[in-house]
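Per reviewer request, we include the raw input and output of the structure prediction for the construct analysed in the revised manuscript.
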Amino acid sequence: MAFFRRNLNLDHAQFRRAEKQAAAQGVSVNQFVRDAIERHNNGTDLSGHLSATRDQLEQLVDEVRLEHIQLRQDLKHDVAQWRASLQTDQAQAIERYEEALKRVLHAMSGPSTPGSAAAPPLGARPMTAPRP
C-alpha cells in the first residue's frame, strides 16, 4: 500500500488524545489516524447503506399497506356478494316451501275422490250411551 504524506491540523490536546489512544491500542499515531479515517469512511458508507435500506423498507411497508387495503375491499365485496346470494337462495327456498304447502293444502281441501263417502262432521253423529 502506497502512502501519501499529508499534513493534519490538530491542536495539542487532540494530538495528545490520539497518542494515548494509539498507545492503548498498541499502534502508531499514523496507524491510529488511518484506522480512524477508515472507520469514519466505513461508517459513512454504512450510514448511506442503512438510509437506502430504510427507504426500501418504507416502500415495502407502503406496498403492504396498499395490498392490505385492497384485500379488505375485496373481502367486503365477496361478503356482500355472498350475503346477496344467500338471501336469494333463502327467498327461493321459502317460495318453494310456500308453493309446496299451498299444493298440500289445496289437495287436502279439494273434493274427495268419487265413490268414497265423505266423513260426516263430528257434530252430526248421534250420541250413544257409554258401553259397559
